[in-house]
Design a protein that fits this description.
Elements: H1 2-55, H2 59-66, H3 72-85, H4 92-103, H5 110-142, H6 152-206
Helix pairs in contact: 1-5, 1-6, 2-3, 3-4, 3-6, 4-6, 5-6
């Protein structure tokens, strides 16, 4: 505990801000990670349920079932049925548009994570600048470099914040790329499932299934 207090004391207030930004980025990463993992684990189950309901010839029941869910796959199905009810032309382009609109929310939080990633090194450089300002202020006060130990505080702040900012930026960049990769995988999987289910819905509708 003493070492931690000493670490923050040497780094100064800018270091505290860097650590706060870093933990905000970590929180966003894990929240999005668990959210994506939960949706991916449910996707095959939801697809199976949709196929089963369609096979019974009840599209209205399909909407009732998926209106209770808030994942992109479920929202896509509900939107497709609503468009069919309104008489809108349903073709491949419209189906793809529905899916794209539904998965847009997956990127929520990613902008904030990107901001934390971009800000971290800038805060590190800010700490470097404030540390150097302290050094020059001390030089001016004592009139030279006779007592190097007097400048240790400014040097520590400059180095600690620079290192912390770069570590935060590198870590959050890696985590952000991992999230984007998982988002792209889920988008591909949900697109495949939605196109499969939408084809079955359109086929059931042609056979006289009621909306």
């Amino acid at each position: 505990m003493t070492q931690l207090v000493d670490f923050f004391d040497k780094g100064g207030p800018v270091l505290i801000v860097i650590v706060i930004v870093f933990f905000i980025g970590l929180f966003i990463f894990f929240e999005r990670l668990f959210h994506l993992a939960r949706m991916r684990s449910k996707l095959s189950q939801l697809t199976g349920q949709a196929v089963s309901i369609i096979s019974q010839g009840s599209i209205s029941q399909l909407k009732q079932r998926f209106a209770r869910s808030n994942d992109p796959f479920s929202r896509s199905i509900v939107k497709l049925i609503d468009d069919m009810k309104s008489g809108q032309l349903i073709d491949k382009d419209r189906i793809e548009s529905i899916h794209e609109d539904s998965v847009m929310k997956l990127a929520s939080g990613m902008r904030l994570l990107g901001t934390a990633t971009s800000v971290s090194p800038l805060l590190g450089f800010l700490g470097t600048t404030t540390g150097m300002v302290k050094i020059f202020a001390e030089i001016r006060r004592v009139g030279g470099l006779r007592e190097q130990a007097q400048f240790a505080g400014g040097i520590s702040e400059a180095l600690y914040t620079t290192v912390a900012g770069l570590i935060s930026a590198i870590t959050l960049t890696i985590l952000s790329n991992i999230l984007w990769e998982l988002i792209e995988r889920y988008e591909a999987e949900s697109r495949e499932s939605f196109h499969k289910v939408s084809d079955l819905i359109l086929e059931a509708r042609r056979k006289g299934a009621q909306l």
